[in-house]
Amino acid sequence: MAAVAFAAVPCSGAVLDRDSLQQDSLRLDSHIQRLEETPLVLDSAQMAGIDSLATRIDAMLQPSFKPDPIRALWFSLVLPGAGQIYNHKYWKLPIIYGGFLGCAYALTWNNQMLSDYSQAYLDIMDSDPDTKSYEKMLPLNYSIRGREDQFKEIFKNKKNYYRKYRDMSIMAFAAVYALAVIDAYVDAELSSFDISEDLSMRVSPALISTPREQRTVSSASPTGVGLTLSLNF
Fold it and tell me: Which of 180, 186, 187, 189 is nearest to 93 (CA)?
């Protein structure tokens, strides 16, 4: 077996002074204490830079939200506007509910006018002198004696007019509902669509090869000078 021998070698060099080390240590402690007591003062530009950096770091650390198109579709089908809330597109809610309110107002108005003119038309068409609700549709103390047939046609046209716009209001209501559903689905579908920031068009000269069957005797060269159009998106 091999034996390993350790030898004590005396250290050569200057011997450190204990008092000098103690003084250096005291000076270092005093310097550290002054640094701790000195307040750190930053100007507004530095503070803004720190806040901006912190915001970017938080944005990078947080996972990006990618909505599910099917879930957005079902949310919007169950409750109009819920798909937009799920997609975090809150600014679209006033547009959607404003459209619903407008359609509801138009539907209520046209339906009420249809009811009034329908009743007036029925009253003017019957032979009962006590049914005169059509007089409410006329100016005060306005007499239609001798022109009943003319006003029968007028009330009939008014009734058809408001029925038409009542039905159009219902279709507009359904259209706003369908648009809200489609918007929620398409918005969620396009949330993961990557669009390059380099959207540009460039025209540059280029050598264009001529097909063999199109070459002539005077133009035997296989290439020609032309322009190329490149689109980056």
Answer: 180
Counts of helices then strands in the chain (DSSP H, E): 6, 2
Cα gap 116→166, rounded to integer Å = 13
Compare 38 and 13 and report the one with higher pLDDT.
Answer: 38
Beta bridge pairs of residue 223: 209
Alpha-carbon gap, residue 101 to 84, rounded angstroms: 18
Confidence of residue 162 (pLDDT cuts 50, 70, 90): very high
Beta bridge partners of 228: 204
Alpha-carbon gap, residue 89 to 190, rounded angstroms: 13
pTM, 2 dp: 0.56
β-pairing, 223-232 with 200-209?
A: antiparallel
CB atoms closer than 10 angstroms to residue 76: 28
